[in-house]
Amino acid sequence: MRSRFEPDRQLTARMVVTMFLLGLVYVAFIAALIVLLKSIVLVLVIAAVFLGAQYWFSDRIALYAMRGHLVSREEQPRLHGVVDRLCATADMPRPRVAVSHMDMPNAFATGRNADHAVVCVTTGLLRRLEPEELEGVLAHELSHVAHRDVAVITIASFLGVIAGLIVRFAFYSQLFGGRQRDQNTAVLIAVVMSVSALVYALSFLLIRALSRYRELAADRSAAMLTGKPSALASALTKVTGDVARIPTKDLRTAQAFNAFFFTPALKSGSALGGLFSTHPSLERRLRALEEIAASLSGPGGRDGRRQ
After folding, report:
1. Is position 215 annotated in a ligand binding site?
2. Residues that bind Zn(2+), according to the entry (predicted)?
């Protein structure tokens, strides 16, 4: 079902290319493990189980990890009201609504498709934002659902997670059991760890590149749907500034979900660089929203038509 969120062909193309490249890496990864571990059935079963769990239960996993729970209309009438209005405007299925009891101001969308999506906001976000700012953030998250990039990021993240787990398993196996193994086994573990590390690095870079673009696409779609890019810019500035004041120990528990958040759970200046970031810089996002505001206020823009 197509929504009224503006389609983004560049985002679609990037998702297709990313999934294709990750698929090639994934096939090579499985083939290498089969050759090294001499067990086709075991490798395929493990891969299928983890992928199935990641796809089918991604919403439950994310909510559990972020201490979130589904809320009824009676519990959060303001939040449900904004989601209802936006979904009616966008002509899209209404996702389930959840709240995470965390002071860190943020929001995320998860789920395998629009019919099984969840939009979750933290209590810290609800407490800090004005109504128009909250509307902009929720429109941003609903755009992720409408563009189906939530499901793509969920599936894409699977390969990196599995490769990372294998690296850790191989490392600790070698660290604590090295004396009890012969030289051939030690070499095998080292090769598996190297292949897994390479796969993790490749998937890491591919997912980060896609994640940065999808955030810009969601900002644009949200601004165009609401017609209020300045409200979204205000929310971005406020949330980014407040996240920087959250204690580091509280941010660490959330950093595994940075790719799904409205803004990353990072201190200002703590990112390793644009290549490794899940989000564009605040300056880049604000600049893009300023350009959208200018286009909407021009002669052919939405604001221009209102005059």
Report:
1. yes
2. 140, 144, 215
